[in-house]
Write a structure and sequence with these properties.
Distance between the termini: 24 Å
Largest sheet: none
Order of helices and strands: HHHHH
Oligomer: single chain
Strand content: under 5%
Helix content: 40-55%
Structural class: mainly alpha
Length: 120
């Protein structure tokens, strides 16, 4: 819960951790996603974990809103779009390096170049 975000005040009885395939976090993401898909996720974030349709709607919303616009900027930009506040700018170098390593391995297995800008 980002208590400094007064636009989307936290429900003190709820936790805003990652749920679903892309696992959005923070009260402001749950609120924005909920507004878009017309469900009060700020007060019922657990719905993402128990309702399959809501789970995938949140994933598609997060991808289309935050990740898709930066995909052409390289893999590092996608890391920043998904986990930037936690992993980038020295936040968790080992996790970032692990992600890049897996990504590179998958690209090699598929016979595609991983491109530039691999880290955030």
């Amino acid at each position: 819960c980002d208590k400094t975000n007064t636009q989307y005040p936290c429900n003190p009885n709820k936790k805003y951790f990652g749920r679903g395939p892309l696992q959005p976090t923070w009260n402001y993401n749950y609120s924005a996603i909920g507004t878009s898909i017309k469900i009060d996720l700020l007060n019922s974030p657990e719905t993402v974990a128990i309702d399959v349709a809501v789970s995938f709607k949140t994933t598609l919303w997060f991808w289309m809103t935050n990740v898709r616009p930066v995909v052409s900027q390289g893999f590092g930009a996608t890391i920043r779009a998904i986990n930037g506040a936690i992993e980038c700018n020295g936040g968790n170098r080992n996790t970032v390096q692990s992600r890049v390593q897996y990504y590179t391995q998958y690209c090699n297995q598929l016979g595609v170049a991983p491109g530039d800008n691999l880290t955030c």
